[in-house]
Give the backbone structure.
Amino acid sequence: MIRPIYVYGHTVLRKKATDIKKDGSIDVKELANDMFETMYSASGVGLAGPQIGLGKRIFVIDGGAMDEELDGFKKVFINAEILEEEGEEWVFEEGCLSIPQIRGEVSRKSTIRIKYYDENWELHEESFDGIAARIIQHEYDHIEGILFTDYLSPLRKQLLKGKLDKISKGKVAADYRVLLPKK
């Protein structure tokens, strides 16, 4: 099921998400499938729980559309915890489904080590680098209540303020289903 994507201005995007309990109260396989379907319908490479209005620690990624080296790199991250970020910082232009039509250069460490559960509740601890690490860091930020715009320079933030204010007031165009903030 394709869900609407919550856009900039919704408070759920700024709150630290809570863990998903393994008690079955949330069908994580069904939720992950919905998230992938929603992400694909919006031509994204990642989507986090808060972006569909769910303040839970889950995100999905499929990097194949962004980089052919990541073809087949499709994963579900539940209750993820980044254990380490290291290596050279590198700048890359990022965008976000929750902030349509805005992009900005973000500096991130090149390598991460992360612990997470997959959709079968199997525990993983893995290292990723390059674009894979960047996608994971971006989605991980969402479950921490952080947006990529938080990393932009003060000048760039000031230049984008008007556009961000318009999005938060519901004046946004996207070619996918969004849920506008309440006025």
Q: What stands out?
A: Helices lie at 28-41, 130-143, 154-168. The chain has a mean pLDDT of 96. The domain at 5-179 is CATH 3.90.45.10 (Peptide Deformylase). The chain has three helices and seven strands.
